[in-house]
Design goal:
four-stranded mixed β-sheet, alpha+beta, about 10% strand, Cadherin-like beta-sandwich-like domain-containing protein
Length: about 1100
């Protein structure tokens, strides 16, 4: 009686979505454009019920309009109960040109998900996929579709990087069309490639990874187009919004995808990755990964166990029943920090605890941030929360089963992952009280305090790490002598904090007993002590002991593990590293070490080139001994390159150059994955720079006139990387930068930009040793370099050395040495060729120093200023020139430097050299190609730039006698590049002591963006205006209120508290009301 359901409902023109069910009342159906009417076929469940069609004339035949037709069917039962069914009938317009679905064969996801009204999509596919089939779905069979102008069933060939696929849809009546675009990106080729043609090698070389471009993008309006791989230019421009190569500020729409270049490059012939194993195939770049997966010359997965069992050490210690005696004395124990982790509630089953820990680790990996992400998480939902829960559950399981070695081992892996979470991804607990766990603002504050101490003791700009430690040590002893113990203790804290940044690997972290790496080592040793015959426990204990500098003890663990599992690649690799670090290695041991290291590297290559789904997930396991973000692994590869450069490769050995290229490529990928500039990022950058420099030295030692442009290209690239690095400035970095810049100038002495970079380096040399004769010489040369750079603007980049370059001390020494070498050669009758410019390019440099400029290791060799630039992570300090410091009044004279710091015994800093790699016999100088082989380059003109003027202003600001000239140059820089913050800041710093309001006027000229768009650099400007006006007690100054509001909006109300207190005490009610009304 009350049944008002339909038993049947269908539509003649199309299928109902969803399929009909009596209890579902809403449906949709789409019909083709040629269909003018449809017939509804329906039947009630109860023969006594009736229905009414509420559309048109009420008949079962529905006359359709174009577009949406809402049809309702009311069913009434015998007792009057009513139910309404709705059908949204869409008649396609004959002029419609929209798809109803779009997909890529193979199930590759589109971003965003398909919607007929969205026309642009992106998708990512594996690196070995060379073609795809696009699957467009038409709602009307009378419509037409093509893919890249061809039949939609035809496969689309993919470039090595990005491929844009155009799907053109034409309407049924042919009057309209619509294009859908899919940007398909292949995953990055995981290791370095070698082009068959040297010209291709130069043309397609990324300045960062020194291998083929990946998704190449150029910088808009860059002179002589500057092209980078997309991930690396994104990384560099997150650090500094300038063109990395020219230092020109980036404008709107600065990034231009180079799709044509990608296509041409993809067709270029390259060598197989396993050419050293005998593969002679020549393959297109786009097909090299798919070839490598099935290459018959690929090294075998199963390594020959005899390569281990036939060694002397194996026969001595493991062929009999006796094992190698390990000197490690360790007993498993539960430490206080571990007890604090044993807090899992309501779980008393070890297996359940382990399962839950794995689940938490999976959630941690899924939620790890990517570079550029805004890290905002709900309470308890950050990746670090999940990682901490995994540690809690493993620790709680250990409490229940303390003799289970695997639990100790798994906890060690989790604790090691904590190290990467903090130092690679910047994940830290908000409520931590640990002095070392500083947020970016506190880090910036400490750096500013250190730079202030350096300035007090005569070290200007951004001093090297050695000079920072020297200044802190001097201050420490002076405070001790004055009886200021509390302040001295704080200075010692700063000393220890900054000295930890000296390491190229994780050794400094291991030395800290509170660090995650040290705790991980303890858990690995706990696991080993409970199960000494486990190869995994020995491997992880051995590699961290090796990192700790205990190479003998580490080798014992690693050889024990290798004897248990002779074909395990990671064991072979780390055993090779440990062998190289033993004293008195024989040639046989070095060959064994090289073999093991190469086998480990080849395993990583094979795994990266043909990853399984499991391997894809493992890439996020940072404690994997062969992970590309494991600095120890990359350092081991670098040591293999060093070893091969000493000993000529034989058989199927890689070349040193090939290994260095792989190291650079992997390190670049690792740096690009870092979310923060933490310890891991800095260590990876060291590997990247060392690999770059090794390849740079190899290149300049190779004969051939065609290499000149390549050398100049490498000089420019390496200089940019050093300038933008997050590594703290140190002597080694200074040395590297000077050699690179000098070779760049020798190669192209008429290049304005090269001379400017040399000037930046020379100025940093002066700041490093201002009181020395070499420092004074460097300052004179810096002024000459900047002046030469300015004078060459508008002239061709080719030509002989300008006069101001020829005057420089290092250039004259180089020429003198070249002349002596030529004379010695001429006196010999051996017929040997005469000396090239390569032999003298750097041998006479003496100082051997260089430094980065803005934003990096010696960011802005002479930046000035007293206040911290907000909460920007490790901002470049703005150090004002010391009053009375004398610099050249003219280009070729320098005067007396400031007084010498205290010579008291220094606190002993950690060593900064890499402990894991063997030392390479590198020359003190860098060579450049012979001037006789210099080839004609295109007639490129040196552009006019603010950079050399800014550099010259900084150099002149070093002396009170030439500060007026510096001020004029700063004004010129502001006119040329009004968006450059540093010019305003440094000019204001020169004026603030004598004329504070003039400094305010300078700051006020900066073209600030709307408050909502202002950056931390902008906030530094507004903050300085506020600081100066408040210090001068100019509370009614018209600039005070607006800048207080702007500063507070960017930095937060907390930064204004001290000013608010003062204003309240001065009864500046109206000003305070205006501030609160803006609600900063």
């Amino acid at each position: 009686m009350d049944n008002c359901d339909l038993e049947k409902l269908s539509c003649s023109g199309g299928k109902l979505e969803p399929p009909f069910k009596p209890d579902i009342t809403c449906y949709k159906v789409t019909v083709e454009s040629k269909v003018s009417k449809v017939t509804l076929d329906l039947l009630t469940s109860d023969c006594g019920a009736s229905y009414k069609i509420l559309f048109g004339d009420g008949s079962n035949t529905i006359k359709l309009n174009d577009g949406l037709n809402a049809v309702a069917i009311e069913v009434v039962s015998e007792d009057g109960t009513a139910k309404k069914y709705c059908i949204e009938m869409t008649k396609l317009s004959a002029s419609s040109a929209k798809l109803c679905d779009l997909a890529i064969e193979g199930g590759f996801k589109l971003q965003p998900e398909f919607s007929a009204s969205d026309y642009e999509y992106a998708s990512s596919v594996p690196a070995d996929l060379t073609m795809v089939v696009i699957q467009p779905k038409l709602p009307d069979k009378n419509m037409q579709v093509s893919v890249n102008g061809e039949d939609s069933s035809k496969a689309v060939l993919l470039n090595a990087g990005d491929t844009v696929v155009a799907i053109k849809v034409s309407s049924a009546d042919g009057t309209n069309s619509q294009v859908y675009l899919i940007a398909i990106s292949r995953e990055q080729i995981p290791v370095a490639v070698t082009f068959c043609n040297v010209k291709d090698e130069i043309k397609y070389e990324c300045p960062v990874s020194l291998t083929a471009f990946y998704r190449p993008a150029s910088i808009n309006q860059s002179d002589s187009k500057h092209i980078f791989s997309a991930p690396y230019i994104d990384m560099l421009t997150r650090r500094s919004k300038v063109d990395p190569l020219s230092e020109s500020p980036l404008g709107e729409g600065w990034k231009v995808p180079e799709l044509d270049l990608d296509k041409k490059m993809s067709a270029a012939p390259v060598k197989c990755f396993f050419a050293h194993c005998g593969c002679e195939s020549t393959i297109k770049l786009a097909e090299v990964v798919s070839h490598a997966k099935d290459c018959p010359h690929k090294p075998p997965v199963d390594l020959d166990t005899k390569e281990v069992t036939e060694t002397l050490w194996y026969k001595t210690h493991f062929e009999s029943t006796d094992n190698l005696e390990i000197e490690t004395k360790h007993t498993s124990e539960i430490r206080n920090w571990e007890k604090r982790l044993q807090k899992a509630v309501g779980k008393d089953n070890v297996e359940d605890l382990g399962t839950h820990a794995e689940e938490q680790l999976n959630l941690y990996r899924q939620r790890l941030p990517k570079p550029g992400d805004i890290m905002q998480y709900a309470e308890g939902q950050s990746p670090l929360d999940f990682l901490e829960q995994a540690a809690v559950h493993y620790s709680s399981a250990i409490k229940l089963k303390p003799r289970d070695s695997k639990l100790h081992y798994l906890l060690g892996r989790t604790l090691e992952e904590h190290h990467y979470a903090e130092e690679m991804y910047g994940l830290k607990k908000k409520d931590t009280g640990d002095a070392q766990e500083l947020d970016s603002a506190k880090t910036a504050g400490r750096l500013d305090e250190i730079l202030a101490v350096c300035k007090l003791h005569g070290f200007m700009g951004t001093p090297t790490l050695e000079n920072q430690l020297k200044a802190l040590d001097t201050e420490f002893h002076q405070l001790k002598e004055q009886g200021q113990a509390t302040k001295a203790d704080y200075i010692q804290t700063l000393y220890l904090w900054i000295s930890k940044k000296a390491k190229k690997d994780g050794q400094s972290s291991l030395a800290d007993e509170e660090s995650w790496l040290h705790r991980a080592l303890l858990k690995y040793l706990d696991a080993w002590s409970l199960s000494q015959d486990s190869w995994e426990h020995n491997l992880h204990a051995g590699r961290l002991l090796l990192l700790q500098g205990k190479s003998r003890e580490a080798l014992q663990h690693l050889q024990t593990a290798l004897a248990l599992r002779p074909s395990q690649p990671a064991l072979r690799f780390y055993t090779g590293m440990a062998l190289l670090q033993q004293e008195g290695n024989s040639e046989t041991q070095e060959k064994e070490a090289a073999m093991y290291l190469q086998q480990g590297l080849e395993y990583v290559m094979a795994r990266a080139l043909a990853p399984s789904e499991h391997d894809r997930g493992e890439k996020l396991d940072h404690s994997d001994p062969l992970s590309i973000v494991n600095v120890q692994f990359l350092r081991g590869c670098y040591s293999l390159g060093d070893l091969l450069s000493k000993n000529a490769p034989s058989g199927k050995s890689m070349t040193a150059e090939q290994v260095y290229h792989i190291v650079v490529s992997l390190a670049a990928q690792g740096v690009a994955r870092c979310v923060c500039r933490g310890e891991v990022s800095q260590q990876l950058e060291w590997v990247l720079l060392d690999g770059h420099f090794a390849l740079f030295q190899n290149l300049i030692q190779q004969p051939g006139a065609a290499k000149q442009a390549w050398i100049a290209q490498r000089c420019q690239a390496l200089s940019a990387l050093i300038r933008l690095t997050s590594i703290n400035p140190c002597r080694e970095l200074l040395d590297m930068q000077e050699k690179v810049c000098q070779v760049g100038v020798v190669t192209m002495p008429h290049n304005s930009h090269a001379l400017c970079q040399l000037g930046v380096t020379q100025l940093a040399q002066y700041d490093s040793e201002p009181e020395s004769e070499q420092g004074q010489e460097a300052l004179t040369d810096a002024c000459l370099s900047f002046q030469a750079s300015i004078e060459l603007e508008g002239s061709p980049q080719t030509g002989d050395a300008p006069e101001k370059l020829a005057k420089q001390a290092w250039w004259q020494k180089r020429l003198a040495q070249k002349a002596r070498a030529a004379k010695e050669t001429a006196s010999k009758s051996t017929g040997a060729p005469g000396p090239s410019e390569a032999g003298a390019a750097g041998k006479a440099t003496g100082r051997g120093r260089g430094t980065p400029g803005r934003g990096g290791a010696a960011a802005a060799a002479a930046k000035s200023g007293a206040a911290a630039r907000g909460v920007k992570a490790a901002p470049a300090a703005k150090a004002a020139p010391a009053a009375g410091r004398r610099a050249p009044a003219k280009a070729d004279g320098v005067a007396k430097a400031p007084g010498k710091p205290s010579s008291k015994t220094q606190l002993s800093p950690s060593k900064s050299k890499q402990e894991c790699s063997i030392p390479q016999a590198k020359p003190d100088v860098v060579e450049a190609p012979s001037s006789n082989t210099r080839i004609a380059a295109p007639a490129i003109v040196n552009p006019k730039s603010h950079a050399p003027r800014l550099g010259l202003a900084r150099a002149l600001s070093r002396s009170a006698d030439t500060q007026q000239e510096a001020c004029s140059l700063y004004q010129e820089v502001i006119s040329m590049a009004p968006e450059v913050h540093d010019a305003y800041i440094e000019l204001a710093d020169l004026l603030v002591k004598t004329d504070p309001l003039a400094a305010v006027d300078v700051y006020n000229r900066f073209p600030l963006r709307p408050i909502a768009e202002q950056s931390f650099d902008d906030a530094f400007i507004t903050g300085e205006i506020v600081r100066i006006l408040m210090k001068q007690e100019l509370y009614d100054h018209p600039l005070l209120g607006p800048n207080l509001i702007a500063y507070g909006k960017v930095m937060g109300l907390g930064c204004l508290e001290k000013y608010i207190d003062v204003l309240e005490g001065k009864f500046k009610t109206d000003l305070l009301k205006s501030m609160y009304a803006e609600d900063p």
